[in-house]
Amino acid sequence: MKKSQSGISRRRLLELAGAGAVSTALPFARPAIAQGAAIKLGVMLPYTGTFAQLGEAITNAMELYVKQKGGSLAGRAITFVKVDDESEPPKAPALATKLVQGEKVDILIGSVHSGVALAMSKIAREENVPTIIPNAGATALTRALCAKNIFRTSFTNTQVGLATGRTMAAEGIKRVVTCAWKYAAGDEFVQGFAETFKAGGGQIIKSIDVPFPNVEFQSALAEIASIKPDAVYVFFAGGGAAKFVKDYAAAGLKASIPLWGSGFLTDGVEQAIVGAGDGVKTVLHYADAVDNPQNKAFRAAYQAATKKAADVYAVQGWDAMQLLEIGLKAVGGDVKKRDQLYAAMSKASFASPRGPFKLSASNNPIQNFYLREYKNGANALVKTAVTAFADPGTGCRLSA
Ligand code: BEZ
Between the CA of residue 239 and those of 245, 271, 329, what are the distances in Å? Predict the structure, then answer.
């Protein structure tokens, strides 16, 4: 049977595609460019459910990056093997095992949901597979559970909360109600927010939890209306974020109680919240209008390739490939030289569409955070709220 450079038969690749584990960068397509077996990237992301669009944006950007490089990184063809994790943590161990032990992927990439990433990373640590987290912010993964093989191109949930609390306190806001999905991420977005918001003189008068991935917000909105805080701080993302913003406006709260959130509230859902979202303020490590040549080129290429506007999730996917390429170049494409690969990745510093990107000692991005205001279908950049802001990485002993 005819074999590809990866040693996998063309028939096997097509079987994987049919089974939902889709290989999109076929290594045998470019034999003259990439030498040796293809590097397999095992991608564990949500392609269904409330975070489906987030998983798609990350994937689109990763594939676009590799395509721009002619299908190879550091001289090695790249193959994507994708699985839909459905943002369901109980399914994550089996999926990660399938990728690592079944498909024998060289690199693991995932996920969006913190609970899925926590389960996936346990296997990644045990198997010492080079792993890049392109979204999930579970704070422990780059604190107490940090590992030399685990890298993040996104954020910690706490880091985003800390940056937002600080920004809202600086705006003079005093009495806030928080509202977030009740799972690891929502809890951490609120904890981080509380720390800096209170330190800046603010007060949290009520914290409302909504079970994940519930999008029934009426009782939360009724409670907010009766409390009448100075502002509301929320964490929702994807389909749930769009629904919350629309429900908040429909409940008549928008004019009287300013709505704030981590930027996931309005990122990637710009077209779904036209009108309803006007005036919503958010803090995030990305804004469409970040003024650097990398962002302009990235947004234009992404728009041309996907017919969609780039968002923060796409940026994180793009940077996952930038980070990987730096590591692969350092080892001449030999992914088995793991310690050298990790050393190069942990020292990586590059120009991201989000602004300057480098990793902390616990392998989490040190990055700018932007204050944005949604208006007329877009998140306008108001100002850089915090420059080169790091999660403290408390409990990580990597640098010791
Ligand atoms: C998380 O679960 O970590 C997460 C999901 C969506 C957006 C941001 C964080």
Answer: 10, 12, 38
Alpha carbon of 182 to ligand 1 centroid (Å):
12
Contact at 8 Å (CB) between 99 and 81? yes
Distance 390 CA to ligand 1 centre (A): 18
Using the mean position of ligand 1's atoms as its centre, give its distance from the Cα of residue 67 in Å. 27
Q: Is the pLDDT of residue 190 over 50?
A: yes
Alpha-carbon distances, residue 8 vs 27, 75, 278 (angstroms): 10, 19, 51
HSE-up (13 A, CA, CB side) for residue 182: 7
Q: In the predicted model, is pLDDT for residue 8 greater than 80? A: no
Q: Is 114 in the pocket of ligand 1 (CB under 6 A)?
A: yes
Tokens read off for 296: 């302009």
pLDDT at 44 over 90: yes
185 lines ligand 1 (CB under 6 A): yes
Which among 341, 316, 208, 303 has a CA at the least distance from the CA of 264?
316
> Of 270, 258, 290, which is closest to residue 378 (Cα–Cα)?
270
**Atom 7 of ligand 1, nearest CA residue:** 237
Q: Which residues of 264-294 are buried (b: 16+ CB within 10 A; e: fewer)?
A: bbbbbbbebbeebbeebbbbbbbbbebeeeb
pTM across the whole model: 0.92
Cβ proximity of 282 and 266 under 8 Å: yes
Ligand 1 touching residue 141 (CB < 6 A): no
- Cα 266–chain centre separation: 14
CA proximity to 39, closest of 338, 314, 316, 336: 336
Ligand 1 proximity of 281 Cβ (cutoff 6 Å)? no
- DSSP structure class, residue 9: B
